[in-house]
Design a protein that fits this description.
There is one protein chain. With about 210 residues, this protein is of the alpha+beta class. Among the domains are: about 80 residues, Ubiquitin-like (UB roll); about 45 residues, Alpha-Beta Plaits. It is built from 6 helices and 7 strands. It is globular.
């Protein structure tokens, strides 16, 4: 068994787990985007980053890929983590401004503006669809092509191979191929309405 500290809470888990898995077992919330329990870890989105303390120093690590170690201390919501998380959400929103998933993450974590030029690429390169097709559907019909800014998810030679059964699993798991955010502003703008408009009233309002 491995003993570690997460947000001041002393926990004990079996060896071989990641920090994300250990946190979930104790009800500690860490946001994720490219992670899915039925797929291998990829560590692409970095939204699940946490702060690993090493004495007076610390570093940011992806909790979905970082294994638990005896005696380590993890902070999941420190100021450094919050700042990095907001920056990542901003960058992703610049690439996929109409993603409902990203709009909701922006609302939840206090992102009220995007300081980067918006260019709707229609893909976050999170790899969920590629891993779903290969690992769960056993198709392997799609994969990554190109490098750098030209990197994309594509079929071989941009034609559907025989392995593709058109099952739709890649669309189902994609955080961009979904109904767009239906907020009151123009597409791509941060409305923050999903969370700001949620109110829990103990009793009906009276005049």
């Amino acid at each position: 068994m491995v003993k570690l500290i997460i947000d001041g809470q002393h926990i004990e888990v079996e060896d071989g787990l990641t920090v994300l898995e250990a946190a979930k077992r104790y009800g500690i919330d860490i946001p994720t985007l490219c992670h899915d329990e039925g797929l291998s870890e990829y560590g692409a989105c970095r939204i699940c980053m946490v702060e690993l303390k090493k004495g007076e120093r610390s570093s940011l690590v992806a909790s979905c890929c970082f294994p638990v170690r005896d005696g380590i201390e993890i902070l999941t919501d420190s100021l450094r983590v919050q700042k990095a998380r907001k920056m990542i959400i901003e960058l992703m929103l610049a690439s996929c401004p109409n993603s409902r998933t990203l709009q909701c993450l922006a609302s939840k974590y206090g992102v009220t503006r995007v300081r980067f030029k918006s260019e709707d690429r229609g893909c976050l390169l999170c790899g969920l669809c590629v891993r779903m097709c290969e690992q769960q559907m056993k198709g392997g019909a799609i994969g990554f092509a190109g490098r750098g800014v030209g990197r994309e998810v594509a079929m071989p030679f941009h034609h559907a191979p025989a392995e593709c059964r058109e099952c739709g699993a890649c669309l189902y798991i994609c955080p961009v191929c979904e109904l767009p955010c239906c907020g009151p502003l123009q597409p791509g703008e941060l409305c923050n309405s999903c969370f700001e408009n949620i109110r829990i009233e103990p009793f009906p309002c009276r005049e």
